[in-house]
Amino acid sequence: MPNPGEHHPAFEEYCECIFELREDSVDVIQARIADRLRVSRPSVSEMIRRMTDEGLIASEGAQIVLTSKGEDLAVQVVRRHRLAERFLTDILGLSWALAHREAGKWEHVMSSEVEEAMERVLGNPTTCPHGNPIPGSSYAPPDAVRLAKIGEGSPFTVTRIPEELEFTPGMLDYLEKWHLVPGYSGVVTEIQRDGGMKVTVEGNLVEVDPFATSRIFVTA
Q: What does the domain layout of the chain look like in residue ranges?
């Protein structure tokens, strides 16, 4: 059981999910929550009822919003998750995909003392390895656009891989393998009819499907 003042991990997961769906400009409705967390819709309905009773969320029509209490909890969990990802990749040298999975465990058990120490060791990072902002940091968003908006022959630099892609099976492994990661630059080599692309990064020709091109953020 959680200690007094703490919340059940399931509540933390749902607040985190709502925060990240909103961050990715995805409609925060029960169906999207079920898709992201890979749980049944009846399970989501029951959890939404419980979280409403706890004062963590409210409904605005079909949309689900965090209350100030829910927002505080979401910010804490997201911050710890992204710091943990940075620590696991930068310090321990784990892959993106493994770090993402492990951080999903650490976010629920990390103390404020460990959180502060981790931030200090990492040198006060502003983003996770995927370029998503760490809440409470000095993050300043770059003037970025989605990769799909870049024309053929245009150079780009990857700035952010949103959470929606992190939850897509195999996507993190693929992007990391082909260096489609924040800080790496490339050129749009070919735009395909379905919205997909071929891009050249680090001398390699890489195919990027329409789902990814419409979500990866880059600077031109």
A: 9-70, 145-219
Residue pLDDT tens, the chain, 220 long: 444 345 678 999 999 999 999 999 999 999 999 999 999 999 999 999 999 999 999 999 999 999 999 999 999 999 999 999 999 999 999 999 899 999 999 999 999 999 999 999 999 999 999 999 999 999 999 999 999 999 999 999 999 999 999 889 999 999 999 999 999 999 999 999 998 999 999 999 999 999 999 999 999 8
Residues 6+ apart with CB under 8 A from 175: 96, 161, 165, 181, 212, 216
State the CATH architecture for 9-70: Orthogonal Bundle (1.10)
**Confidence (pTM):** 0.90
Dihedral sign from CA coordinates of 113, 2, 18, 55: negative
With tokens 């898709």, the residue in question is 35
**Is domain 145-219 annotated with CATH 2.30.30.90?**
yes
